[in-house]
Amino acid sequence: MAALDPLPELMVEPIVRAALLEDLGRAGDITTDAVVPAGHVSRLVLAARQDGVVAGLDCARLAFRLLNPDVRFTPIVADGSRVTPGTVLAEVEGSSRALLTGERTGLNLACRLSGIATATASLADAVAGHKAQIVCTRKTTPGLRALEKYAVRAGGGANHRFGLDDAVLVKDNHVAIAGSVAEAVRRVRARAGHMVKVEVEVDTLAQLEELLTLGADAVLLDNMTPATLAEAVRMVNGRMLTEASGRVNRETAPAIAASGVDLISVGWLTHSAPILDIGLDWVG
Questions:
Q1: Which InterPro entries match (predicted)?
Q2: What is the DSSP string of 14-25?
């Protein structure tokens, strides 16, 4: 996997801050403030409770340090690392109040992102040996898109478009309203700038044949069988990127990849991946 660049703190901090404010409500952590003396210091560790791939350690770090900048957060592994039950991910030391108050926010984000990274890695492993790359979609949790797409990269996948404005994707409803693939593409070509990539979704080989006479940068082959995908790849013959979508899981992914497609897009990676269980354990 290529080196994983961390997200700029400028992007991550507002998300973590908003999550903390949601949890603190109007009166703060009334339990911790009542039980724990103001000057008390603790040492804790973040530890994995199951096999997986880690992502989101910076979110956990910020959850503690926004509450108390003197908290020391020492990562033991890096995002993108594969871990087993009991693996210590990071050591945290400082104000007990800050650590207990920030615990749930930090773990919510780290568990969520690590779950996405783990699911992505599982699919990437399933298609190893084929050229197909696993990519995510815009089916992300509102407000968390940058983090969730980062987690996909941590798991060895890649990102599809980040928003509606960075590429054209003509889908079935666009085609229905325009009347045909050709008319939808014509309207796009008349409107989009020369730097904008154009991808078109097709459901049938007949639609693909029509698209091939028009030209595009990529084609989304939606809900096709592996045999139909292989025929579509043969028809395209390298003239555009081929992307398969629909009914992708660890069991179906190898056959989809064997069709020769360039990309396999998977929405559930960011909308339904189970979390990776991570705990915050007191050690002194």
A1: Aldolase_TIM, NadC, NadC/ModD, Nicotinate_pribotase-like_C, Quinolinate_PRibosylTase_N_sf, Quinolinate_PRibosylTrfase_C, Quinolinate_PRibosylTrfase_N
A2: HHHHHHHHHHHT
